[in-house]
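Notes from the pairing session

We agreed to fold both candidates in a single pass and log them together. This is the raw record for the first candidate, unedited. Please don't reformat it; downstream parsing expects exactly this layout.

Candidate A
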Amino acid sequence: MHLHLTLAGLALAIGAVSAQAAQAPIRIAIGTQDTTINCAAGGLLIRELGLLEKYLPHDGKYQDATYDIEWKNFTSGAPLTNEMVAGKLDFGAMADFPGSFNGVAFRDAGKQSLFISVLSGSTKGSGNGIVVPAASPVQAFEQLKGKTISVPFASTAHGMLLRAVAAQGWDPDKDVKIIAQAPEIAGSALRSNRIEAHADFVPFAELFPNRGFARKIYDGSQANAPTFHGALVDAAYAKQYPEIVTAYLRAGLEADRLIAESPEKYSELIEKVTGIEAEVNYLFHGPLGLQTRDLTWKPEYRAAVATSIDTLKLLKKTDRGLNVDQFIDDRYIRAAFQAEGLDYAQALANYAPAPLVANDAVSGQPITDFKRLAQIWVRGEDKVRHYASPEAALSALAGLEKEGKDIRAIYAQAADSGIKLLANQAWFVSDDQGRLNAFLLKQQADTYAQAQGGEVLDFTAASQKRLASR
């Protein structure tokens, strides 16, 4: 009798433990990079807007599930990867280069991670860039031979810098001195002229010039090397909870849709959380921005991963390759698209930048040619003002300043590459009809002026010339 009671009690205890285990919350631990603003649709926006909770499953095997959602923010991909490999995080968002290192680190630990989605990117390479101190005489990358260039090591910007050096035919060990430097250190070094140049990832090649102490002299698109930020997951976690992985990506799709609909509003939210100015966030996330928010695995992004892995081998960060076809797994993002009623194949084939539907702020007429688009963001206004040409924007700028308006930013589209520029950092070519064409670099403007005719002007001179012609 005593034995029977003991066994019965043991069975009850085991049942209680099993029930408790069944009811234990499912952990969803997500590593974000808030200041790497192109990860926003995979982290900051999902967290701040509570989007993940909307999509988590509560049927089938998840009928009685509860969830423990954990968020942890990082300033770079390497420490995020360390915690993923250690089993402290299930998801992570980072760029192609550190993302590839994530795959290598998992493999070296006898585990596997999966690159499951792109979040934002540029098939041409915009996003990474190189800056010099504002007072530097350097106007182009080729003038950096023999100079010291800092860069966050093992970052996507590091890969861009090595490609730029190779394109010049330079020896990276002899013709330039490349040193490791995090963005927060580089900012103060640029301010005090303690560094000759700095290469960095999103958003620092635009953030530092926007703050007035640096000039951008190289854009990643000049290397024509695709770059992106994306989301990764622990493969074992994805196998156990595929529906949660799809839910996370559905939340990312909603975040992407929201910022497309209201780029100014969510650029403000990103500033509130990170301190990175909304005008810089808009430069990336707004219509016709530096990068295109794109959650599909375009061939160029797959190639970027392969290139990153090769670069890791070159840097002796790994001595083995990584099977890109196994590492990149698009099943979950395809499932997320399907669940949202979206056409993945159509999105995969779409290379257009985030579109703009707008009227000219002066004439009220629809803008149809975006090659010479210019925009002004007045502080305190909810929406950016759009202009059909740089000369129209500069004329309007003079009037706004006369009214005492605080100008948050003025943008122009580069006449050659089409990338969005901070106009106060740009160079312009004025033709004989007074039309202005914008360029990132003085040498690009010089080349255009020699071929097409016209006068090369910096932003101040272009503004003054426009004011004089009124």
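Candidate B (folded immediately after A)
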Amino acid sequence: MPARWRRKAVQAAAAGALALILAAAPPGGPSRAAAAAVATEAESALSDDAFHTPPDPLPAGRPGDLIRYRPAKAGPPSAQALADAWQVMYLSTDALGEPNAVTGTVLVPKGADPATAPVVGFGPGTHGPAFHCAPSRMLAIGAFYEQPAVNSLLGAGYAVALTDYEGYHPDPETTYTIGRSMGAALIDGVRAAQRLTEAGLSATAPVFFRGYSQGGGAAMWAGELQPAYAPELDLAGVIGGGVPADQVQVALGLEGGDGFGLLAYALLGMDNAYPELDLEPHLNDTGRAAFADMNARACTMELLLEHRGKRVTDYLTRSPLIDPPWLARIQENTLGTRPIAAPVFQYHATEDELVASPQARSLRDAYCAAGVELVWKTWQTGHIALVYHGNAEALAFMNDRLSGQPVPSTC
């Protein structure tokens, strides 16, 4: 149903931004008054934006070539003091290997020579299917929940190429959890940053792929795809936390639980990515309304709060996941089938309520068996808390790779 999910006009962006900031901010984060101010700005800033509409037809070019760009905000004032920023649209590749257009944000630290800056392809965590949830749009209004990680990178002298992934435009068709699409979007975001003349970055700069949750999956996919897809990149390391490596095992933990909305969103992502799959015949009336509403207005908080405790049978007459075409595509989106040709830092929460930890350990074991230099670490916490708690060690891992320290592999 890609174009089958037509966007409804809604005015819930301000409330969504406010809830997200207050729920996800770490200690010392924005106050309630500051968050309310951001939400007020969001109410006027999150209207449909032609910048995000891909040209039709797409221009000729290579993956990573820029289609358009414009100056942007690096986030709230604290981030604006750290970096110059541009929103970009660039060519990339979808799950079928066809050209597509992806948006994102390039951030370059101030006060340093950009020609010497390493470049981080930053994969955001789950933002939800609605257009106003796009990571670069959240960043622009100061509501990006992973801003602390971005700020720490900028403060340490790293340039950041933050991708929105595929499908964030006024009639959204996001391809959530689809590995080839996410990995290509992350890789090509780095290429676009290096080709943005105004940024001044080097085409031979050391490159890292980094992310948490959906972003952790994207980082690992980028790492697996890079040798064949972007061999010219000087890949120095891959950092992935809370990685959803096996969709079946993750889905089993979400059915009837707090994170069922993420499972529903994954079904929507597969439906958008693969023409031969069709979710519509599987939906009951409740599901048809829920999925249309989700695509129209849902960001992360709506996914988690409004679909908590639901089951597949609440929305579908039968699960599509038992059909061979769906099963084949799910199998394609399982990580760990090819090695990563750079050091890897993988971490996970032992009490992860959204992304099952056993399947992450299985990914670790697969990479170790393939000879990947991998550092594995766990925190005794839940999924959302580790969005913040893992940042310091992720940055330390990156700094060590740049300084030539040996990889303390735990394989």
